[in-house]
Amino acid sequence: MANSSAAIGIYIHIPFCLHKCEYCDFYSLPITDAEVLENYTRSIIRELEHRAESIKNPITTVFLGGGTPSLLKPQQVERILAAVFAGYKISGELEISLETNPATVNLQNIKDLKSVGVNRLSIGVQSFNDNELKALGRMHGGLEARMTLRDVVRAGFNNYNIDLIYGLPNQTLASWQDTLNSAIEFNPQHISAYLLQLDDSTPMAQKVKTGTISLLDDEAEASLYYTALEFLAEQGFHHYEISNFSRPGYECRHNLLYWQAREYLGIGCGAVSYINGQRHLNQAGVNKYIDNCRTGRPLGIEILETMTPRQMAADAIILGLRLSEGIKFKEFKDRFGFDIMGEHRDVITNCQDKGLLQMDKESFFLTKKAYFLSNQVFNQFIV
Ligand code: SF4
Q: For the chain, what is the domain count?
């Protein structure tokens, strides 16, 4: 059982995609047929019912991620959400997000997703440049992404994110600026801009290894990043997390739970939960997971990590420094019972001297220079 009365989030993993993108190392499988999706939906509902007993905390956010959750029919999303409402205490108005791939939706099902209760879409655009999208192995082109965004606006969504990736092979400042300009045209409330990072297992990493493609150097990547920072600030976006920008009041509440090191429940194959200082992985493959849920067998949940109070505090520092507001001294002491300066004065002073951390009376936070070098800071807080 979660150990406090604080609100928590539910993450629901939908591990299916139309096909595997070249750069992706998430747990997802190519979708085979509609029957698998239906069986998986039923399993998610059973797991939600089963785990409701152990969660007494109110729920504040639901995030359907993947994979490609927009492969679900709106009516399947509706049944999943009904299981959340039936089994869990709800705190205020739920933020209900769904990740959407432009290759999988049209105006009608975007409207239907809204009518079944989804109130935030996160649209995996990545780039508006066809060559860049091709290199990523995306199933959509720039035009399709534009059409989806137009449909999202037409359907009346007023809270949606555009996901972008920078640091792509052959990407130039001009093509990145074009992508940023195109994103802004749709007046989104939120933009995420992540650096392309390749796990060795991905086809794209193999191409880099064999010299078929090459990645940009650090300087070029940093230049793309800081271009986005400046441009989005000019456009009125609040840079609230290293890679995330929002209109005021439209920060992603679910992701804030992660960055604030709060608890969350992960449902579905490959989903991770963080409850009571433990990280759990729902480890079964899809067939086994469906079978376990159907027959009521144990779900195959593996404990990944049991954290000591000191490790939980270190985690909260590393995650919290991702936020532009940083760590508030008093809040931290109230939560973890010790004074952060008492414990980490040397590290913080050292990072200040290098121009990586800044401090005011209430808090300490990354400098602008450190946003692109954040691991150098985070590594020093690991216990
Ligand atoms: S759509 Fe997303 S989750 Fe699926 S393969 Fe592509 S990047 Fe991975």
A: 2
